[in-house]
Backbone:
């Protein structure tokens, strides 16, 4: 790599200046933009705050900007070309006028981090809702992973979105309950530092399940101090949080975070929901740009559930919206994680980042979607369970190359993920205690090896980003239901090119064209037991859009997009599974607006419209069940800057088809949530959070399901739903030191 840099490095016209950008605490500021009067000549600071910019002369003014800091200007003198200059940025409130629009593939991510600062999340269910255009639905009051909706996809629990935390994958491939199952409940929301996300399959470092998009959560490397808080609210809800700053030194930081949650929920049969999280993170700096981060965490959760109930029983008054047909549903799950990240400065604007991770995961879920459809005597309860070990490694190299006066930001990486899944099970059960029949029972081994190359070349106002990714998969299944040893295996590879083009005439406007191929892998059991033809179905997508700041305090994003998917996965209610369907096509429009009236008032809104259809099906029979076509979000937030902060957030989803011919509809809803926080002193604060402020009767999870009750002679297909929480208030008391 060093030889390649030497071969391509050529002095640019004018003189070069080198420098380091740090904050007032002496910490390096990464990704700050450094530019002259024109964006034709700009660069970004690297991991240790270092930058180099050419084509300069004495008297030129360097402009330095980064979110959370005051804009800085530096006038160059003759001696600055002979020495390495030092730039110190002063910290400031997160303000929209600090946001600049550069030639980055992810330039709009900074806005979501302002959203996070203005409206901090205090539950793991709220984490995903920080991503513009993303909706969730909970099936079991916080027990199961959330059902996710994005860009006209009913993603179920994660089939078409790649989720990671500090580089460790959240998605579970070939999961007992559904492909890509993503339980984020092991993340303590107060530990989140920022959110990196992207819509579409345009990112070379993102692989399996990145079709509708990806989200990567980065946790804090250190704490500003220690925190203990307690929350209590309706439905016997209680939460205890502790975040302890154990070591806070120049080269060493260590903190411990833990939470405990319990709730009975609004249901007539108490949920008996319990969750415990413990997480510790240690960071050691070998130098200003060489460091390691070690993180250990453990999560466990168990719950009872009332399940999805049929609309007909609510309509005829047999049960209420919060009643149950089979209240023996529920589950338990746990996850233990260990991650190690090592970052090294290799010199010549090059650094390397190595990530290693290990997870041990257990899952057991009891469900009854169809009641007495299949077994009129015992009922249709099923159990899905598994135990798994995940081992992974990924190594990335980042550098800058110079070809004439062209700056090339270059990254490349390779890695491996291995899943060892034991006793993957789908069984017919009764009352949680008795196994009536094992329908699927076996062991899965799944390996993914990958590599990518990702250059980004600047040509004045234009930036060209061609990249490519290669993935290899090996699938193995041992069927424990066979009398004789039965092991099946297959492998497959896929190449995913991406081409992105950006036009940035200034820091207030960008026009972009993104295109690329992504994919989601199929379930190992479907591939080997059902001889699936589509092992790695691809997604082909393009975005044409712009980001614009007409005034410093306003940010607008507009995009039109198109996506084709080789294979759709559709929920099958009578089996309680997600199975392969057919080819699909989606296209739509995304609109986003952020406005900061002053440093106290902030507004955000997102509107997303999508048309989603199956390909090859007759007109009128080609609707994709539960694919949302119109979603919207709006929020207004106030921060006095001293004691009081508040936020009101409203989300809307339109009625949508629940089956292929649109004869059954999933009801839309509009729900508002309120947050109030007051700092009594520097150490004490209190808050009130209200979910569903206006007590709307809304259906959260909804499916068109064929079911039969114990006293029914014939089955009925209709909406089965989990009710959304009614008016729910909780009070929080916090102590900081």
Residues:
């Amino acid at each position: 790599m060093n030889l390649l840099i030497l071969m391509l490095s050529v002095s640019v016209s004018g003189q070069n200046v080198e420098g380091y950008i740090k904050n007032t605490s002496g910490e390096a500021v990464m990704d700050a933009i450094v530019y002259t009067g024109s964006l034709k000549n700009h660069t970004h600071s690297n991991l240790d705050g270092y930058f180099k910019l050419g084509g300069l002369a004495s008297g030129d003014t360097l402009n330095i900007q980064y979110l959370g800091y005051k804009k800085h200007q530096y006038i160059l003198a003759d001696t600055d070309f002979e020495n390495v200059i030092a730039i110190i940025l002063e910290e400031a409130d997160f303000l929209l006028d600090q946001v600049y629009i550069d030639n980055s593939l992810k330039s709009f991510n900074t806005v979501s981090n302002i959203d996070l600062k203005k409206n901090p999340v205090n539950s793991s269910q709220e984490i995903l809702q920080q991503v513009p255009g993303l909706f969730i639905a909970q099936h079991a009051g916080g027990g199961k992973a959330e059902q996710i909706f994005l860009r006209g996809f009913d993603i179920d629990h994660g089939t078409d979105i790649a989720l990671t935390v500090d580089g460790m994958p959240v998605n579970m491939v070939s999961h007992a309950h559904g492909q890509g199952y993503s339980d984020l409940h092991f993340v303590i929301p107060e530990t989140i530092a920022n959110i990196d996300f992207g819509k579409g399959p345009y990112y070379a470092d993102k692989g399996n399940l990145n079709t509708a998009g990806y989200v990567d959560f980065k946790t804090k490397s250190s704490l500003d101090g220690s925190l203990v808080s307690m929350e209590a609210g309706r439905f016997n809800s209680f939460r205890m949080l502790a975040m302890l700053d154990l070591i806070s030194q120049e080269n060493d930081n260590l903190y411990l975070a833990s939470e405990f949650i319990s709730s009975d929920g609004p249901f007539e049969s108490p949920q008996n929901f319990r969750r415990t999280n413990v997480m510790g993170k240690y960071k050691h700096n070998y130098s200003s740009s060489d460091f390691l981060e070690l993180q250990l965490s453990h999560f466990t959760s168990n719950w009872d559930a009332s399940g999805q109930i049929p609309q007909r029983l609510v309509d005829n008054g047999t049960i209420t919206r919060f009643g149950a047909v089979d209240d023996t549903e529920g589950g338990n799950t746990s996850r233990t994680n260990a991650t190690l990240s090592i970052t090294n400065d290799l010199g010549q604007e090059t650094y390397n980042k190595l990530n290693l991770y290990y997870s041990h995961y257990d899952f057991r879920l009891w469900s009854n979607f169809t009641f007495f459809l299949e077994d009129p005597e015992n009922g249709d309860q099923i159990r899905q369970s598994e135990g798994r070990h995940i081992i992974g490694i990924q190594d990335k190299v980042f550098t800058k190359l110079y070809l004439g006066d062209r700056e090339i930001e270059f990254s490349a990486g390779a890695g491996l993920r291995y899943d060892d899944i034991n006793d993957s099970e789908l069984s017919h059960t009764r009352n949680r205690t008795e196994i009536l029949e094992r329908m699927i029972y076996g062991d899965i081994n799944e390996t993914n090896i990958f590599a990518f190359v990702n250059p980004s070349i600047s040509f004045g106002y234009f930036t060209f980003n061609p990249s490519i990714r290669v993935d290899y998969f090996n699938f193995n299944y041992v069927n424990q239901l066979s009398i004789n040893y039965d092991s099946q295996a297959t492998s497959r590879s896929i190449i995913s090119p991406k081409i992105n083009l950006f036009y940035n005439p200034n820091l207030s406007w960008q026009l972009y064209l993104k295109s690329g191929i992504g994919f989601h892998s199929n379930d190992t059991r479907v591939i080997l037991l059902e001889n699936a033809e589509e092992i790695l179905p691809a997604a082909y997508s393009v975005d044409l859009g712009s980001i614009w700041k007409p005034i410093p305090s306003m940010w607008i994003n507009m995009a039109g997009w198109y996506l084709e998917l080789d294979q759709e996965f559709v929920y099958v209610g009578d089996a309680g599974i997600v199975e392969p369907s057919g080819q699909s096509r989606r296209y739509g429009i995304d609109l986003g607006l952020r406005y900061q009236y002053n440093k106290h008032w902030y507004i955000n809104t997102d509107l997303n419209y999508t048309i989603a259809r199956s390909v090859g099906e007759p007109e009128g029979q080609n609707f994709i069940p539960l694919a949302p076509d119109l979603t919207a979000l709006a929020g207004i937030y106030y921060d006095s800057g001293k004691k009081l902060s508040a936020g009101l957030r409203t989300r809307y989803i339109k009625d949508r088809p629940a089956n292929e011919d649109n004869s059954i509809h999933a009801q839309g809803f509009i729900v508002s949530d309120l947050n109030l926080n007051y700092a009594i002193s520097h150490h004490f604060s209190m808050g009130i959070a209200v979910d569903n402020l206006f007590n709307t009767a809304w259906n959260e999870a909804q499916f068109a399901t064929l079911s039969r009750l114990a006293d029914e002679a014939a089955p009925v297909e209709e909406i089965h739903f989990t009710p959304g929480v009614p008016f729910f208030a909780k009070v929080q008391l916090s102590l900081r030191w």
About this structure: The mean pLDDT is 91. Residues 2-92 form a domain with the Immunoglobulin-like fold (CATH 2.60.40.1120). The radius of gyration is 26 Å. Residues 109-118 form the longest helix (10 residues).
